[in-house]
Amino acid sequence: MPVSVRIPSPLRPFAGGQSVVEVEGATVGDALAALGEKHKELIARLRDADGRLRSHVRIYVNDEDVRFLEEEKTALKPGDTLAIIPAIAGG
Predict the structure, then answer these.
(1) What is the DSSP string of 20-46?
(2) What are the pLDDT digits (tens) for 20-67?
(3) Which CATH class is domain 2-86?
(4) DSSP code for 19
């Protein structure tokens, strides 16, 4: 089932410059695994050494934060959109 993954500007160099990547996946975890197969450098920026999402990375499915759903087990439907949102700090 194809879903779209929106890539934020700071991470686009690790996704071949693409702003959207189409992947297959029944769950958020499946979609991220498929994204990692296509763009290993990108997934290395999203996951820590233990394979968990880094604390500063948020994933949204159709504007819903997966932390408030079923996290990486959140089911996807064809046409869903995942958005990767890295936290940005400044001062």
Answers:
(1) EEEEE-SBHHHHHHHHHHH-HHHHHHH
(2) 999 999 999 999 999 999 999 999 999 999 999 999 999 999 999 999
(3) alpha beta
(4) S
Greatest alpha-carbon pair distance for the chain in Å reads 41
Q: Which tokens go with 25? A: 């996946």
The pTM for the full model equals 0.91
- Domain residue spans in the chain? 2-86
Calpha distance 29→73 (Å, rounded): 6
Q: Encoding tokens for residue 42?
A: 């990108």
* Separation of alpha carbons 54 and 9, rounded Å: 18
Cα–Cα distance measured from residue 40 to residue 74, given in angstroms and rounded to the nearest whole number = 22
How far is CA 42 from each of CA 18, 26, 73, 75, rounded to the nearest angstrom?
Answer: 11, 20, 20, 22
